[in-house]
Specification:
By secondary structure, the protein is an alpha+beta fold. The chain folds into 2 domains: about 45 residues, no CATH class; about 160 residues, Glucose Oxidase, domain 1, CATH 3.50.30.50. It starts with a helix and ends with a strand. Bound molecules: 2-acetamido-2-deoxy-beta-D-glucopyranose (3 copies).
Amino acid sequence: MSSLAKLLVFTLLSAAVASSKDAAYPSGYGDEPGICLGSSGEPKPSRREIYEGGEIFDITHQYTPNTPSGVSDDGAGEILRLLMSMKNGSDYNLSELKLCVHAGTHVDAPGHMYQNYFDQGFDVDTLDLRVLNGPTLVVDVPRDKNLTAEVMKSLNIPRGVKRVLFRTLNTDRRLMWKKGFDTSYVGFMEDGAQWLVDNTDIKLVGIDYLSVAAYDDLITAHLVFHKSREIILVEGLNLEGIELGIYGVHCLPLRLVGAEGSPIRCILIK
Ligand SMILES: *[C@@H]1O[C@H](CO)[C@@H](O)[C@H](O)[C@H]1NC(C)=O
Ligand SMILES: *[C@@H]1O[C@H](CO)[C@@H](O)[C@H](O)[C@H]1NC(C)=O
Ligand SMILES: *[C@@H]1O[C@H](CO)[C@@H](O)[C@H](O)[C@H]1NC(C)=O
């Protein structure tokens, strides 16, 4: 066990047995209000993208029945189903999740478009968390073009930059807020993907619609990115209102063994 894990276990155990007079942890921790109060004092759930002072930005979209999905014009549909319901006399509520792994904010694994990688087990559980977490650039791209080699070159992304989140016309058009799949989104053309592979050190490519590859090059551009199995594609990000610049990005997929995609929670920390 790492010393951090030991400390954590120790802290939790101490907290469980500690009386108020010999505190197991310094005061102050846990004092932050976790819930907001409504006007009549009842607890009110808080939903937000930007946390106090703009230190944390949630760049994940909410998952709802209207969340767009590449395989449907009708959105993700009923993704939650209550199996047990208190309203029906059960002692608790208990839901089941049914979600296309390429709906909403999600990540692709190499097995998405290479059968051999799928067969070899290169699923989302094998994605490198060091690539999915670390310094990132958020960039704006020209609004009148897809991401061609020429556009990529014009962005002048320096060597050494390993993660880039591309904000495009998709954000201006708010495509992720529309439940129907819109094939006119902006994405990488095959030559743009190849240019990135050949001329940059980028290993994490993030984009603001369901596919990093433009619809006309849907398969070919994905193949270019996934070929080395070193580049991770995060799709369907919410980059609205995010200032361009450098952040720490933290993305965590679910450990879905055998899946070529997964919902992913991504945040930026200033
Ligand atoms: C409650 O039970 C009724 C009757 O079995 C069923 O139609 C309904 O869907 C249930 N509702 C929930 C939320 O489980
Ligand atoms: C339990 O499920 C019901 C729907 O059957 C819902 O209205 C209620 O808010 C849920 N309660 C909790 C505590 O989540
Ligand atoms: C990008 O390509 C798609 C087809 O793949 C097209 O519908 C769309 O108009 C293009 N967008 C721009 C800004 O050129």
